[in-house]
Each structure stands twice: as C-alpha cells, then as structure tokens.
Amino acid sequence: MKEKTIIDRIMDNISVCDNGCWEWQGNKTRNGYGRIHYEGRKQFVHRIMTPGKPTEEEPYSLHSCDNPACCRPEHLSWGNNSRNTKEKRDRLGTHASQKITREDAYKIKFLEKGLQREIADRYGISQMQVSLIRAGGTWRDLEYGEYK
Asked: Which among 68, 71, 85, 87 has a CA at the least distance from the CA of 20?
C-alpha cells in the first residue's frame, strides 16, 4: 500500500468552515497554528500549504483570513512582517495592537486640537500614543485628505 502524501495527510485533518477556511484539526501551538510531523520534524501546516516558496524578502506565510488554524492555499501567501501588519490593519481597520481605528488616528494626527492628554482621554489611549501618531512614529502611512 502506497504511503499518503503530506497533502493527503493534511486534507484528512481539516474541517471546512462557513467562512471558507480549511481549519486544521490536528496538533496546534498555543497560538492556534497547526503542526504536523513531516520530513523528520514538526512543521507548520500553513507553511506547507502556502503556494510557492518562501524567499529571503518574503519568508513568512501570511493568512488573509486572520485564522491561524486555516491552511487553505487561497488564504495563504508569502510575505514579510511589514506587509502582514499593513494588510491586517487594512482588513480590520485598526493598527495591530491599538485600540483605535485608522479614521481615529487620522483625526488625532490632522484634525484634533487641544492638549495631547485631553485627546488621549477622549480616545481611550495614552498621551504617548497621541504623541507618536502626531510625530509619525505610528500610523506612518496616513495621508492628509484621505478622510473628509
């Protein structure tokens, strides 16, 4: 009897979700990424299923669905950390670890008047975050005029 390919082994352990994700049902990391024993070691399922090959410029397998258990090739692509952060921010409307939307950051950077502490209190963020937004330390890609 012929041994199963790695793709067959993966396909035997997925569940197709309503949102189109192929969720890995086997062993997972604490962060929810699927792992499988392959070529003598444990490997991430999504990396095996990502079309193409990683490069020095794009070493990471990125999920367009933001679901770490997903291993559907159409939801995966090779990229880098800055692309991953930007695309996630664009999809979710927020900066990766921040409490505000892109539009809020725009208002803080270009429209809000007053003391930084007062602005911070209105948006539920720290005065330091207001300072960073205004100085371009975060939300660097905001452009004047993108919101009316």
From this structure: 71
Angle at the Cα of 62 from the Cα atoms of 129 and 8, rounded to 5 degrees:
155
3-state SS class at 54: coil
Distances in Å between the alpha carbon of 146 and those of 3, 75, 110, 141?
56, 28, 11, 11
| Three-state SS at 38 | strand
Q: What number of other Cβ atoms are within 10 A of residue 61's Cβ?
A: 22
Q: Which of 119, 122, 144 is nearest to 132 (CA)?
A: 119
Q: 29-56: per-residue pLDDT in tens?
A: 988 999 999 999 999 999 999 999 999 9
Alpha-carbon distances of 81 from 46, 73, 96, 130, rounded to whole Å: 16, 19, 11, 24
Q: How many domains does the chain have?
A: 2
Q: Is residue 63 part of a domain?
A: yes
